Amino acid sequence: MDTILFIVFATVAVVCAFNLVFQTHPISSALSLIGVMGSLAVLYLLLGAEFIAMAQVIVYGGAVMVLFIFVIMLLNAGTEKASSKSWFAQIAGLPLLLAFVAVLAFLIRSALPGALAVPTRAVEFGSWVGGSAEEIGKLLFTQYLLPFEVISILILIAILGAVVLAQKEID
């Protein structure tokens, strides 16, 4: 049953991700991103990480996406206009992308040879206790305090940038 649910929600996440990229209207893209976030929350539940799944829904699916939609509406972003691509980009784009991904995968694989193995163990639904709120909180405010604060400052800078851009357009 877990395998079927994984395949279904992984497929939903991938389809929503492609829809996110190929949409021309920003609100539709934001709604596709909500679909990706919801699918990821279900995948976290399948892994037994209930706290992270609920944080995914509440923080990312709720608060962050409301902020994104608010900024999109504040900027009054309309439908994206199609641009004419150069002939070189049309012909060489996909092969260059595939070559870049192959080189990047090779570099990651050579730099981290043992880190790519994922340990597997038989875990029943809800029996894994490694992701409790208490353990995550202790790690977040001890070992990962600096990255946590840096990310919060970056988010604040992004919000201020959106406000500045919106004010320039209003003037």
Task: Explain the layout of strands and helices.
Layout (H helix, E strand, L loop, with lengths): L1 H21 L3 H22 L2 H26 L11 H25 L21 H8 L4 H26 L1
Short description:
The protein has helices at residues 2-22, 26-47, 50-75, 87-111, 133-140, 145-170. With 171 residues, the chain is mostly helical.
Based on CA inertia axes, which overall geometry fits? Answer: globular
Q: How big a fraction of the residues is strand? A: under 5%
Fraction of helical residues: over 70%
**Rg computed from alpha carbons, rounded to a whole number of angstroms:** 20 Å
Assign the structural class, choosing from mainly alpha, mainly beta, alpha/beta, alpha+beta, or little secondary structure: mainly alpha
Question: How confident overall, as mean pLDDT?
Answer: 80
Secondary structure tally, helices: 6
Number of strands: 0
**Ends distance:** 56 Å
Uncertain spans: none
Largest sheet: none
Oligomer: single chain
